[in-house]
Amino acid sequence: MTAPQFEVVVIGSGFGGLCAAVKLKQAGIDNFVILEKDAQFGGTWQVNTYPGCAVDIPSQVYSFSFAPNPHWTRRLASQSELLDYTRAIVRDFGLGPHLRLGVAYEGAQFEEEGGYWQVRTSAGPISAKSVVSALGAMNRAAIPALPGIDTFAGTAFHSSRWNHDVDLRGKRVAVIGNGASAIQFIPKIAPIVAQLDVYQRTAQWIVPRHDRAIGPRERSLLARIAPIRLLYRAFNYTLYEINAPLYVFFPRLFRLAQAVGLRHLHRQVTDPLLRRQLTPGYTMGCKRVLVMSGYYPALTRPNVSLVTSAVAQVRANSIVDADGGERAVDVLIYATGFHVGHAPGAVEVRGRGGKRLFEHDQDCYKGCAVAGFPNYFTVTGPNSGLGHNSMIYMIESSVNYVVEAVKAIRARGLHSVEVKAEVQRDFVAKVQRKLRGTIWNSGCKSWYLDGRGRNYAAWPGFTFTYRWATRRFDIGNYVVRT
């Protein structure tokens, strides 16, 4: 029987994939490859290059605990700094030889007799004992099927695939959507365009962006004195972690937190009509709370219009809204988010008995393993997302569990490990019970919920409870084949 080419195939080179690669190397596992469909590595921070792109969690916690960066120049790092950080990870941990850039993951089939995976890629098939999927939830741009869109004669693109060849100066621009990316790039492009029309479906809760520069003296202290660096990281982690009870245990208290968002709106927008249009009609936290200080002022500019009527039709050089208004457009920018159903379900992954991954549901054990899919692991899979703190903490927790599983397969010479169906079922049921009374289930429509209204995105608790749940690979909950 032919042995697989690799011990592990890691899918994706964002923070999740790079973290998995580092931990594999530190565990003495060097026979692995990282597949990346794009020509460069870096995940979200390589793909999203729109003006103003930045993180909304403090840089000190939006980074790996094993690779602290004392050189951040801002409290909330920009896209370019975050991309530089991923480059440093690849360089410092020797990940370059493991990267396969421009090689897309196209699916996988479990070979039951041999206990390994046949992986289909754009560069041909490869095989691996284990697969670690670190695709992330937000890598498939969602572009609405607007009536007449094929007739549009201007330039159109999604914010996550920003067209830097298009000069927006003096152009009439329409932005469809007002989510996390839109509120960052709209203040940047508003001063240079001739006219900007922002099509809003739902008003968002927005709070001030408390960003600041980190000066040379402060950076020097963080670089030279490790205890200060650790204290700063712990402070920022705690500052955000104390918000977890609002999301999970006491969602009604979010109504008090709404005062912050309303005060922010009223301070920056004086026009009564515009205020009403920008006031959300749902409880804060039900959708992602956005962080931005420059969005509201941009909407008050004389060359910017907020359109709350839905798009009825796109024409060659204009957009017609549901109220019959028609506005000329040269450039159309989609800020419409992503298809956030778990990414591995977007390709055909066939497990034991030909079962397809996430074909009927997104049930997953600890966001890391799925019954029927031996030796197939996910990094921050279903129900490991957050609304209040850094996903990097969750990534490290998930990767620790996954790498421990890979180590167990190696150390014991196992054919495969597969989470027991009843264990997964009980775990998913427990998570869903905990989610029932959370803010995400308070009535609004959001990317946290699937088409049936089930929340397969969020973790219902503190981040440290997820760290505890993934602290070790609980092989007793798995079907072990030797």
Task: Describe this structure as you would to a colleague.
The chain has 482 residues and is an alpha/beta fold. The protein folds into two domains: 278 residues, FAD/NAD(P)-binding domain (3-Layer(bba) Sandwich), CATH 3.50.50; 150 residues, FAD/NAD(P)-binding domain. Helices cover 29% and strands 18% of the residues. The chain contains 13 helices and 20 strands. Strands 1, 2, 3, 4, 5, 6, 17 and 18 form an eight-stranded mixed sheet that branches. Strands 7-16-8-9-12 form a five-stranded parallel sheet, with no helix packed on it. Helix 1 packs parallel to helix 11 and helix 11 packs parallel to helix 13. The longest helix has 22 residues. It is globular.
Shape: globular
CATH architectural arrangement of the largest domain: 3-Layer(bba) Sandwich
What summary fits the major beta sheet?
8 strands, mixed
Q: Helicity range of the residues?
A: 25-40%
Pfam family, one: Pyr_redox_3
Organism: Massilia mucilaginosa
Protein name: NAD(P)-binding protein
Write a compact overview of the structure shown.
This is NAD(P)-binding protein. This protein has 482 residues and is an alpha/beta fold. The chain has helices spanning 15-26, 44-47, 79-92, 182-189, 216-224, 226-241, 244-248, 254-268, 272-278, 295-299, 391-412, 421-435, 463-469; strands at 6-11, 32-36, 99-101, 105-111, 116-121, 126-133, 155-158, 172-176, 195-199, 206-207, 290-291, 304-307, 311-314, 318-321, 326-328, 331-334, 348-350, 376-378, 416-419, 478-481.
